[in-house]
Amino acid sequence: MADQFEDFRAFLPKYLSTADQQDLFAELSQFPPNIDKRLYTDRLRGEPVIFQGDGLTDLPVTNLPNPRIGNARHVMVMSNSCDVDLRNRRYLGPRLMYCPIIAFADYTESIRPVSGKLPVDHIEHVRRQKVSSLFYLPQYGDLPDSVALLDRFVNFDLRALDIEHMTRTRTFTLSNYGFYYFLFKLSIHLTRMREGISRS
Q1: How far is Cα 76 from Cα 174, in angstroms, rounded to an integer?
Q2: Cα-atom radius of gyration of the chain, to the nearest Å?
Q3: Cβ distance 147 to 136 under 8 Å?
Q4: Cβ within 8 Å of residue 41, ≥6 positions away
Q5: 102 touches 149 (CB < 8 A)
């Protein structure tokens, strides 16, 4: 298993310094017991940029076919950082894609069957990042243990948002380790190269 894990070195981000690559590799090698506050970083606090994977506050969400639009206390940014950089010119206006975050306690309550017993295996799988449509977020600041609902994207006109306020009040930014795992999880959720279906 250790030899297989060494293969991850080939896929570490090349833009990181050697020291940062070593730190990231060390964190990944400890997965999943280290799903904790190491997913987050304070290094980018104050940066006036929205980063992919950021936790933002108070943005509208929908739950179609229910037409009601409500505000989620926390959301997670799906858009990549370049696409939401207003300095990058584009023919169509930029949209911010994000998904709602809900408290883990609310999630477990929503899946509690009539019998009142929780599916313990499923709860453990969510916490260990084994459910492709959910990204588990451990407690951080005023964010309780939570899950981001990766299958409930919303998009919003970026030009209608107060970017300065949003970045100043953001809930979290992912660390190198958190971001790497977020991209891995997002790619599994959205793309299956081995879907097992012949399309010819």
Answers
A1: 10
A2: 18
A3: yes
A4: 173, 174, 175, 176, 178
A5: yes
Distance CA 193, CA 200 (A): 15
> CA 112, 115, 121, 122: dihedral to nearest 10 degrees?
-30
pTM over 0.85: no
Q: Give pLDDT, residue 56.
A: 95
DSSP string covering 78-96, please?
-S-TTTT-TTS--SSPPEE
What residue has token string 């449509």?
Answer: 133
What letter represents residue 167's amino acid? T
Helix ranges, 30-143 (H): 104-110, 120-127
Domain boundaries, the chain: 15-189
Query: How far is the CA of 143 from the CAs of 6, 7, 74, 75, 133, in angstroms?
Result: 34, 34, 8, 11, 20
Q: Tens of pLDDT along 100-148? A: 999 999 998 888 775 577 777 888 889 888 888 999 999 999 999 999 9
